Amino acid sequence: MAFFVYILYSEKLDKYYIGVTENVEERLRKHQCNHSGFTGKASDWSIRFTELHPDKTAALKRERQLKGWKSRIRVEQLIQKNSHQATPHL
């Protein structure tokens, strides 16, 4: 089963969030709901990047890599580099 690595952005918080899911659209809805987690602090999350992986193991490995960058600039460069590629309608 395929999995996505995704990056969300909140203008309110001016923060990015990186995660893994099978269903990006459903996951975004959950992030936008009021809850006690990090993404619960805002409801304006938008999808800025998605990347398809063949399985959960590969997606989690990539997620760890992106989170390990600890660099907003590198995340923004990744988003910019891939902005010319249309994100599939999810």
From TrEMBL:
Domain spans labelled GIY-YIG: 1-77
SUPFAM superfamilies: GIY-YIG endonuclease
Pfam families: GIY-YIG (PF01541)
CDD domains named in the record: GIY-YIG_SLX1_like (cd10449)
Domain of life: Bacteria
Family indicated by similarity: Belongs to the UPF0213 family.
Name under which the protein is recorded: GIY-YIG nuclease family protein
Lineage, broadest ranks: Bacteria, Pseudomonadati, Bacteroidota, Chitinophagia, Chitinophagales
